[in-house]
Specification:
Keywords: Aminoacyl-tRNA synthetase, ATP-binding, Cytoplasm, Ligase, Magnesium, Metal-binding, Nucleotide-binding, Protein biosynthesis. The chain is α+β, with helices and mostly antiparallel strands. It contains twelve helices and nine strands. The structure holds 2-{3-[(4-chloropyridin-2-yl)amino]phenoxy}-N-methylacetamide (2NL).
Length: 332
């Protein structure tokens, strides 16, 4: 092949290659074209192989032309690659575009159930009075629910606290006193604890009774505690709960685990309303957990959480608290 034939071939190669590169639809196709034209066995190499037969004065000229073609193709390939990459990014951006002006998906905030907010309010007050929160299992043994609380099997108070019995002698706790018994077994006096939680009674359900309800009990044991300390604690708690001007009345009562015992009423909307029971811890209870009743005295009180929630929010029926009716619950 003559030098001019080779030069024509180079010119043709340049033209076809640039046309093909310009129409490449993607990067894979572009790589194919690069191999086809510039690869080791590509078309440019083939043309260069024909240069061996040229004379020494023709060779540099044709060689320079070949280099020009090579550079033109490289420039063209690079430009095409840049364009295709930019187009790919633009396409991805377009397909993933978010319209930030669209209205969002509403995620309404929940709120505390009125029973939990009542428990929280009660606990806050007792924490302010130096109490620690203690919790425990809803499944208990007869010992921790009754016997350690001075309530042996034949005790008449068992009738009022009949509960749900489980296989293996277990039962559902009738008060959170069992948590306090377990706490005393593990801690030496002085102690001050508040035990909130769910409790159970075998009870017929009506507007003011539920077989499942909530209680908060407090217990304080140390040297020298008297009924005065109990009274001061209860009055302070009730004033923080209901208001500073509150009238409070203590009436003598009976519980198996306290002696003496009292029930407490508050003057609320013109009527005396019973809100809790309390008393000095019976020495038998202290003995059962290994405390020395000659050295230590204690007081305890039990509050019905539903009772407090109903009085504070003027609810007419305890069952509303368990019905999960948002039209009702959203009010609190
Ligand atoms: C009520 C009021 C009360 C207690 C609970 C208690 C707990 C221990 C020791 C002594 Cl560990 N007492 N709790 C005391 C008096 C009243 O609850 O109406 N209960 C049926």
């Amino acid at each position: 092949m003559s030098a001019s034939d080779l030069e024509r071939e180079l010119a043709d190669l340049k033209q076809t290659a640039i046309a093909a590169i310009a129409t490449a639809a993607d990067l894979d196709r572009l790589e194919q074209l690069r191999v086809q034209f510039l690869g080791k066995k590509g078309q440019l190499s083939q043309v260069l192989r024909g240069m061996g037969k040229l004379s020494t004065d023709e060779r540099p000229r044709v060689g320079a032309r070949a280099n020009d073609v090579k550079q033109a193709l490289q420039t063209s390939l690079e430009g095409a690659r840049n364009n295709l990459e930019a187009a790919a990014i633009a396409a991805q951006l377009a397909s993933e575009t978010l319209d930030v002006t669209l209205p969002g998906v509403g995620r309404p905030l929940g709120r505390k159930h009125p029973l939990n907010s009542t428990i929280d309010r009660m606990i806050e007050i007792f924490i302010g009075l130096g109490y620690t929160v203690a919790e425990g299992s809803e499944i208990e043994t007869d010992y921790y629910n009754f016997e350690a609380l001075n309530t042996p099997p034949d005790h008449p108070a068992r009738d009022m606290q009949d509960t749900f019995y489980l296989p293996g002698g277990k039962l559902l706790r009738t008060h959170t006193s069992s948590v306090q018994i377990r706490y005393m077994e593990r801690h030496a006096p002085p102690i001050r604890i508040a035990a909130p939680g769910r409790v159970y009674r075998r009870d017929t359900v009506d507007a003011t009774h539920s077989a499942v309800f909530h209680q908060l009990e407090i217990l304080s044991v140390e040297e020298g505690l008297s009924f005065t300390d109990l009274r001061g604690t209860i009055v302070e708690f009730l004033r923080q709960m209901f208001g500073t001007e509150l009238e409070v009345r203590f009436r003598a009562s009976y519980f198996p685990f306290t002696e003496p015992s009292a029930e407490v009423d508050v003057r609320w909307q013109g009527k005396w309303l019973e809100v809790l029971g309390c008393g000095m811890v019976d020495p038998n209870v202290l003995k059962a957990v290994g405390y020395d009743p000659e050295r230590y005295t204690g007081f305890a009180a039990g509050f019905g959480v539903e009772r407090f929630a109903m009085v504070l929010h003027r609810m007419d029926d305890i069952r509303r608290l368990y019905a999960s009716d948002l039209r009702f619950l959203r009010q609190f």
